[in-house]
Amino acid sequence: MSLGYIVRRLLGAIPLLFGISLILFTIVHLAPGGPLDVYVDNPSVSKEALDQIAKAYGLDQPVPVQYVLWLKSMLVGDWGYSIRTGRPVLSEIVLRLGPTMELGGLALLLSLLIAIPLGIISASRRGSKLDGTLTLVSFAGISTPVFWLALLLQLLFSVHLGWLPSAGYKSIGDGSFPDRLAHIVMPAAVLSLATIASWSRFIRSGMVDVLNQDYIRTAYAKGRGERGVVFFHALRNALIPAVTVIAVDFGTVISGAVITETVFAWPGIGRLFMESMDGRDYPMLMGLMMMGSVGIIVANIVADLTYAALDPRIRYG
Amino acid sequence: MTLKLTRRATLKGMLAGTAAFATIGLLPAWAQQKGGTLTVGLTYEIDTMNVYSTGFLGDAQAAVVEGLLAPDKDAKYVPVLATEVPTIENGGIVVSEDGKTMKITYKLRPGVTWHDGKPFTSADVKYTWEAVKDEKFIAESKDGSAEVASIDTPDELTAVVNYNTILPTFASTLFTFGIFPKHLLEGTDLNTSSYNETPVGTGPFKVTEFQRGQYVVTERYDGYWKKAENGDALPYLDKLIFKMIPDTNTLITQLKSGEVNLVVQTPYSQAKQVEGIDDIELIKGPLLSWQHLDFNFKRPSLADIAVRKAIAAGIDRNVLIKAQGGFPEAIKSPVVPVFEFYDPNTPEVAYDPAAAAKLLDDAGYVVGADGIRAKGDEKLSYTFMVQAGRADDELAQQVIIAQLKAIGIEATADNKTGVAYREARYNGGYDLIYGRWITSADPVYSVFWGTGGANNGQSYSNPTLDAAFQKFENTLDPAVRKDAAIEFQKILAEELPTISLTTNVALIAKTKKLKNFVPNPTNMTNFVDTAAWYME
Amino acid sequence: MVDSTIEAIATTPPQSYGRRALKRFLKRPMAVLGLAFLVLLALIVIFGPLISPYSFDGQDFSLIGSPGPMTAEHWLGTDELGRDALTRLIYGGRVSLAVGLAGAIISTLVGTVVGAFAGFYRGWTDTLLMRFTDVMLSIPTLPLVLLLSGLFRPGPVLLVAIVGTLIWMGTARLVRSQFMALREREFVEAARALGAGGFRLMFRHILPTAIGPITVAATLAVGSAIMLESALSFLGFGIQPPVPTWGNLLNSASSWLSVAPWLAIPPGLCILFTVLSVNFLGDGLRDALEPKE
Description:
Helix content of chain C: over 70%
Helix content of chain B: 10-25%
Strand content of chain B: 15-25%
CATH superfamily of chain C: MetI-like
Number of helices of chain C: 13
Oligomer: heterotrimer
CATH topology of chain C: MetI-like fold
CATH class of chain C: Mainly Alpha
Structural class of chain B: alpha+beta
Number of strands of chain B: 21
Distance between the termini of chain C: 35 Å
Number of domains of chain C: 1
Strand content of chain C: under 5%
Shape of chain C: elongated
Largest sheet of chain C: none
Structural class of chain C: mainly alpha
Radius of gyration of chain C: 23 Å
CATH architecture of chain C: Orthogonal Bundle
Shape of chain B: globular
Order of helices and strands of chain C: HHHHHHHHHHHHH
Largest sheet of chain B: 10 strands, mixed
Number of helices of chain B: 14
Number of strands of chain C: 0
């Protein structure tokens, strides 16, 4: 995989992002109402006051002009200003990105660490009771409403057992590693649930396919003391299809973060999104959606590169 | 003016009524203990600590930043950074000879210091007006700044505010929200200033940490000016922490686990759970807010007083109250009973479905085959709007729909959100509308039902009513205002452009250890007077 | 006509395909169980509201205020407006299943058409459609649905349309790859040689052969749509009351969870078991319709 390939993929992402920005901008600006909606209940706000605020945020310009202005601020500026807080969108997002990366990163790590062994065990004992049970459990994992599970977990671990804090990023005046670990356990577990379940399924089926192939069967049949090596080889081949799924699931993690962060009062970008929804903070919503899209595109590029790294037959030139 | 701009968004979740059922102990002189930390759970995220630009009511802000005046627990203005509330009697208010303008003199409290130790002076008052009025400052609340022509500061402790009009509601605006520290802010850009996260005020608590999306920590300010009656230095609490927890289920879980010990906006539906928590008690705090059903007079049948009366008689407020956990209280006037302008003799239409049916029968609205009444082409079938997504409003709406059905009137939910809702409300894009307003301690009502009033989307016009509003809103004379108030309440109750249904209450869940907590009904929130709170 | 005989030969899989698929399907007990559960559920939600003595929005004023316990009259208790919880659960199931089915149908239609055109015509059509698919795939789904339903406040019909038009991309890619592989096959060539036009080739000849994977994708989409609706309802952007869905029932009951768990547990379990059944069914169909031979 050459540098040239990476550069070409990144260049290819530009028209993609342009398309995304057009679609999002159109949606946001076609919607009835606008950010000034938050004044909807105020009996005393005058039309003049509204006009003035609209002007301050450039909302009085024609939509195409607004788009160009916005695009410019995305490219060379601070992504515009949040209507809710008056601060630059970019710095607000950067501020909230850290907690989300921690949560998402831990959830992805947990998913891999749990899903791979589960998938392998299931595949190697295909058709057994254990396989059946694991299948049932992973399907149940995909099928459980996340927020419902979160609620039950909070009741169990925070209220009844008192082991874990029910929400938040850290204790006030603390923030030590154990303290933060205690805070992140439940949200990360909830967030990883669906991905653990679906990835273990994919790894299982990948393993089953590989294990059924002739060369593996031959290797097993010969019964040489290289089973471990063969098994590792099989695993490597089984991971290849799974990698694509993992990249696609990056979007699932982002979606999951919106719910998880809301339930657990986690100060990440998922919650920032919900707050901005309430405040109809257009510049912030646009920034966040673009951010999420960039994340998904990057995840896909990384997946393709990993794909190449795992499968020596694939070479991107 | 009615309902502060800035103080709007929380009202969404806010519920309302009067009278506390938990006893609020009256200062046993020995018991106040210094120290302790109180952790407050908020369901919204604090956007900015600047009182003039926040989109919320400003709970945390009120503990940090003080104004010249503040409304007390009875919604009466009391002096804070001023030494007295200006009135005509004490010479604080002087009306010009032509009766068109006024001049208000504030005597400022000596010995008050900002959290950085610098003294508070009249220059700060003048700067506050200049800063808020500045067009470049994007504020959600600039009320009252345009009416000020100039401010004189003859000495450090006197501010003379020259108004370009008569503004009876002056106390509910500008200087009440808070005063800016001139020495720190002059020449800075208020839109981006660090003041918006760590404001320097004169209040009992100072901000020591602001974590976006997480919490705001405030600690006691040792140089606070106020002393307790027994001479104790105030405030008692060491720390007042505001945690932001957007999901109400999680918030209640935090109450249960003791991670939060004060919640000022408990949803009605969570009250039962909260009552079951040890160490937590539920207080019903009054609010200057009420729930109402309004009519669109463009519908011929709704312009018919018989139909409006029948609807009024067909709604059982008790069921509405029960549906909201039994917390709101029935009212008959939009002037909620906590106000002195409330007239207890306002006539009311009692719940009586039989009488409602008879009224409609007599007026010629006969029940059709589908159970819905009609007279000629005009069928008593209405679109009914509330703001979509507000659980409490949608709940009340469902109850009202069921009750109207019982008297042969069909109402169909047609809920809207955002600007669609706003436009429908202002332009009368509904037949029936249900909602709740909250007001400051000094409200005006002509915006709702005056001819051409800003919030009169009902196409309702009544010259007699307009005259009464006019009298009420353009004089400083309390006796004249009281008479006018009685008059307009009577007209509203008889003409029924609106049916005032119930009050709203704030359900406050607090730890039993917290003492001296006094609910505040106004848009200045419960945190306007935190200095005397202490933990047992 | 000669044409039609060739067509019959070309499109009809060997007679035994259906029977073999059925046989394979029946070997998957969980899939059969899932199907049985869904059939039973469908019967309940279709006929339940007709049998129930209560209507989904009928309030018992004497019970208003807080949830009522489980009694002989109200098997699952009543909600805070005195409405029968079981009736609402069943009616909510009707709405949730309808959302799931309609969402799946829309997404399958859109995905199939996009994928078919891209895979069949290739070239510019393919590039254009697939770039568009990439764009849609790159926008995080839940936030986009939230944005749309938050900004437009859709009614049930529009909401279903939104859900359906945002989960079609996987199907489109799948159908495209199927079409790319199939368009070169002999039976297609044969039909083409006999003068069949593009549409005819696509929808009469190729599509039936690709129906297996499409069915599987459609089945799984039902589950996705139900989950998406419940997530929307939890965040307050789903179908508006008084119309119940499992999602908004669960959401409103969760505030009563420790006071009246009998209200919050059933809708959660209903979502869980329904989506579980759908997933098992999809899994079984995959094995039955796309045997790895």
